[in-house]
């Protein structure tokens, strides 16, 4: 078809569906840990990076299985089945109603959900990691030797399918996650958010099987990684045996393998080891890079995602693939040629060094954003303190005096004050003065708590009510809280959307309830003794807390006043774009260049060894994050960002020093030299055999 083997179209479609499945699931994973399983941020981050590390360790296993035992086709087939089962198990494990027997909205046996989720993730890690090194190579196997141009086009299409799957899934699955579903109680729809990727993985498997008769299936020919490992192992063992000084030293420690392995293989391994040595500092870059899906997503939950339409925190990850698609051609066709025109020697290792520096700067930018978020957060009372907020629900101005002689506050009609902080040991009482009335209140406040004092002047005096707010921190995960206060002189029944706040007596206050979708407007309904009044609420900001006063009803229209107890998230998610831009620039310079450099410095038959080493650096980078998240005593998130930025900067300097001592080689020249020597030796052997034959004939 168009000069291509028909089989490769099945492989490209399979890769699109698999990448959609993986990135879609991964996009919502951190919020699933924190919001559904209710793990704290550090533990959720540690488990997330454990999963990613496992995904990058298992490709080595997959490559060995494919090359030494099953072949690429069977490896992809069997591990895809494991992969699809894992996605299905994860989706089932996220069903809230699975163990919610009392229908209260919370699983009665969360351990069951956790167990299913972990089993699902382990299966997914083995599936996605195991097929990772096989699919692209299997696609390459479909072409004949004279189809080099078509093979190159295939790899471009293959890379495009990866990015398309990543882009679409990162956009779609967070939107599905943000919707509500459930049998007995409506909650964020994780079963569907994981279920759609599971369906796509099943589609990927079916598509791959449909094309099975068209595939060219190359038999397993042995794994070069095993051969390299055996050679290195033999060299170390042989060197240890001959450690005595009576044995002459050899030029390189690998030369101790020459008794068993040929010189060409030893020379090839030497070339690979020179590159692998440069890989030692690289995990620190991946420790920074892969936090897009964990720490940066958690950071976005405390930000305002209103772009005219609501962006979910886990959708911000889409900035990276969008920028990659834009920047790779721009850098290749514009930036690099410009640098070349300026006659700057911008070698691959220098590009990687600059990439690491930009990665460090991305985390400095993340730290600055985090400082702004922290500064916008409310200050809650410390030990020995309490906070009081005043709401005047009457039509007459009031003055509140805090005693003994602490301060006096004027409160206008239908207005509120902010929270005022007092030492609990000093504040003994207060007086409310409104109209011609004066009301005194003796106080015994509990430290570290917030209180709301709502009052109003009526002809018979001043009515007042004290409320413990029972909120000790800003609502997490971008959720918002709302409560109602009844300003009528009779009891009313209050609902907002599907939420029932029950009956409220005059001047009584309901408990806070979470707003299902803070960006929406809801119909507030107050059922009065003889009729019902309604009004649409304002849109609630994300991460805020609100008190709504029910004030009056005229012709079935309800009049309310919104009071802001905790300000919503004010730092906009757009402020994350600079850090994503810097990190994407870093990825283009570091990742793309790193693989290109590695492949240019190693023999053609050793590419898989370098691929394994590269993936291993990603795994180790994620292990670094889970260690820091697990043992770090740093309380402030901005400080952790600065720590990672500093560590990457130090590693960047170390890498620059290592790179300055590296000498670039051409593996093809070295291999050609070996080929010449082998030909010479073959000729010598041939000449020697001919002479022997001539001598034999004379005899």
Automatic annotation (TrEMBL):
Subunit structure: Interacts (via extracellular domain region) with trypsin.
A single Gene Ontology CC term: apical plasma membrane
Annotated organism of origin: Loxia leucoptera (White-winged crossbill)
Membrane recorded as keyword: yes
Keywords from the named record: Cell membrane, Glycoprotein, Membrane, Peptide transport, Protein transport, Symport, Transmembrane, Transmembrane helix, Transport
Compartmental location: Apical cell membrane; Membrane
Renumbered residue ranges of the record's region Disordered: 675-699
This protein's name: Solute carrier family 15 member 1
NCBIfam families: 2A1704 (TIGR00926)
Function according to Swiss-Prot or TrEMBL: Electrogenic proton-coupled amino-acid transporter that transports oligopeptides of 2 to 4 amino acids with a preference for dipeptides. Transports neutral and monovalently charged peptides with a proton to peptide stoichiometry of 1:1 or 2:1. Primarily responsible for the absorption of dietary di- and tripeptides from the small intestinal lumen. Mediates transepithelial transport of muramyl and N-formylated bacterial dipeptides contributing to recognition of pathogenic bacteria by the mucosal immune system.
Membrane topology: Multi-pass membrane protein
The UniProt record lists the keyword Nucleotide-binding: no
């Amino acid at each position: 078809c168009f000069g291509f083997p028909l089989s490769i179209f099945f492989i490209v479609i399979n890769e699109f569906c698999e990448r959609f499945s993986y990135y879609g699931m991964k996009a919502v994973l951190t919020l699933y840990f924190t919001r559904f399983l209710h793990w704290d941020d550090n533990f959720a981050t540690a488990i997330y990076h454990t999963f990613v590390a496992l995904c990058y360790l298992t490709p080595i296993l997959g490559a060995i299985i494919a090359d030494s035992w099953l072949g690429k086709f069977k490896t992809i087939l069997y591990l895809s089945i494991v992969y699809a089962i894992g996605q299905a198990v994860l989706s089932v494990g996220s069903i809230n109603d699975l163990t919610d027997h009392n229908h209260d909205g919370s699983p009665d046996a969360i351990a069951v959900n956790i167990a299913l989720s972990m089993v699902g993730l382990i299966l997914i890690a083995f599936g996605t990691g195991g097929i990772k090194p096989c699919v692209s190579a299997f696609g390459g196997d479909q072409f004949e030797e004279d189809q080099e141009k078509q093979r190159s086009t295939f790899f471009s299409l293959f890379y495009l399918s990866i990015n398309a799957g990543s882009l679409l899934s990162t956009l779609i699955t967070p939107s599905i996650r943000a919707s509500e579903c459930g049998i007995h109680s409506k909650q964020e729809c994780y079963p569907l958010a994981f279920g759609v990727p599971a369906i796509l993985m099943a589609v990927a498997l079916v598509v791959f099987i449909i094309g099975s008769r068209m595939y060219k299936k190359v038999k397993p020919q042995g794994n070069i990684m095993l051969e390299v490992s055996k050679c290195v192992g033999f060299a170390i063992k042989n060197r240890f045996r001959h450690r005595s000084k009576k044995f002459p030293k050899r030029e390189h420690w690998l030369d101790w393998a020459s008794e068993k392995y040929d010189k060409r293989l030893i020379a090839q391994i030497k070339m690979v080891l020179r590159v692998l040595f440069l890989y030692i500092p690289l995990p620190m870059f991946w420790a920074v890079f892969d936090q897009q899906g964990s720490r940066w997503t958690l950071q976005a939950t405390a930000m305002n995602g209103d772009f005219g339409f609501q962006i979910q925190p886990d959708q911000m990850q889409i900035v990276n693939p969008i920028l990659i698609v834009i920047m790779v051609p721009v850098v290749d066709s514009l930036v690099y040629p410009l640098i070349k025109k300026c006659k700057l020697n911008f070698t691959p290792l220098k590009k990687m060094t600059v990439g690491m520096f930009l990665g460090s700067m991305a985390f400095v930018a993340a730290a600055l954003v985090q400082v702004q978020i922290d500064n916008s957060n409310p200050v809650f009372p410390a030990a020995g303190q309490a906070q009081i907020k005043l709401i005047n629900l009457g039509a007459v101005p009031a003055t509140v005096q805090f005693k003994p002689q602490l301060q006096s506050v004027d409160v206008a009609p239908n207005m509120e004050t902010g929270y005022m902080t007092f030492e609990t040991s000093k504040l003994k009482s207060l007086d409310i003065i409104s109209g011609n009335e004066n009301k005194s209140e003796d106080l015994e406040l509990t430290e570290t708590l917030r209180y709301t004092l709502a009052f109003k002047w009526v002809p018979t005096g001043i009515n007042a009510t004290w409320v413990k707010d029972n909120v000790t921190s800003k609502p997490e995960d971008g959720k918002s809280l709302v409560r109602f206060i009844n300003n009528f002189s009779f009891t009313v029944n209050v609902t907002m959307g599907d939420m029932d706040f029950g009956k409220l007596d005059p001047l009584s206050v309901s408990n806070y309830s979470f707003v299902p979708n803070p960006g929406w407007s809801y119909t507030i309904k107050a059922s009065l003794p003889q009729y019902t009044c309604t009004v649409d609420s304002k849109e609630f900001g994300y991460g805020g807390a609100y008190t709504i006063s029910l004030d009056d009803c005229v012709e079935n229209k309800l009049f309310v006043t919104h009071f802001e107890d905790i300000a919503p998230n004010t730092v906009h998610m757009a402020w994350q774009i600079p850090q994503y831009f810097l990190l994407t620039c870093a990825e283009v310079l570091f990742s793309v260049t790193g693989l290109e450099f590695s492949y240019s410095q190693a023999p053609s038959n050793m590419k898989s060894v370098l691929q394994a080493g590269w993936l291993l650096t990603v795994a180790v980078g994620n292990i670094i994050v889970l260690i820091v998240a697990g043992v770090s005593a740093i309380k402030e998130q901005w400080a952790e960002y600065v720590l990672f930025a500093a560590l990457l900067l130090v590693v960047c300097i170390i890498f620059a020093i290592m790179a300055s001592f590296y000498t670039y080689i051409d593996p093809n020249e070295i291999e050609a030299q070996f080929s010449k020597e082998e030909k010479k030796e073959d000729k010598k052997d041939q000449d020697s055999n001919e002479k022997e034959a001539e001598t034999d004939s004379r005899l």
